[in-house]
Amino acid sequence: MDNPLRLEVIVASVRPERFAPVVADWFLRTARADQRFDVDVIDLAHTPLPTDLSMTPEVGAYRERLSAADAFVAITSEYNHGYPASLKTALDTGKREWRAKPIGFVGYGGLSGGLRAIEQLRQVVAEIHMVSLRETVSFHEAKRRFDADGNTHDGAATDAAVRLLGQLAWWGTHLRTARAAEPYPG
Predict the structure, then answer these.
(1) Which domains does the chain show, CATH number per domain?
(2) Which of 42, 92, 160, 172 has a C-alpha 20 to 30 A away from that of 66?
(3) Which residues have C-beta within 8 Å of that of residue 96, sequence separation ≥ 6?
């Protein structure tokens, strides 16, 4: 593709013994194989965002990355039926940078596979004027879904990732064109 979409994959969990890198690495291999995207990662465990939402040089650099992106995928665990506080801080730290851009979700966890966290996130991203994709990747009992090399044989998740990337490319392309033609009225 001549002008691939800039995709930022946000890894939400910041816990010391998190499972997020396994899920993120799998998804990143899938996304990077898709020529429609130029993929980068914002790992919130390594992105110092102040919880008081104050402006710092790191926040400025973070917001520049958000602004340059055409699309996002959030990889989120589920903690106590919700998403990590680090992801809420990341969403609240940005402002207009999110607007008129699509976001997809890859959830993981126990029995719910992160779906409760994702449903809460849909409300938040709607408020910041993002387009939430219908397709979602979900790993129920995630630690049982990956082998020692970080691969999964979960066909439903693999298929969902392909569909998610297709929707992300469609929305990302059309919204990028629309933003270039006319500023978003929000």
Answers:
(1) 5-181 (3.40.50.360)
(2) 160
(3) 186
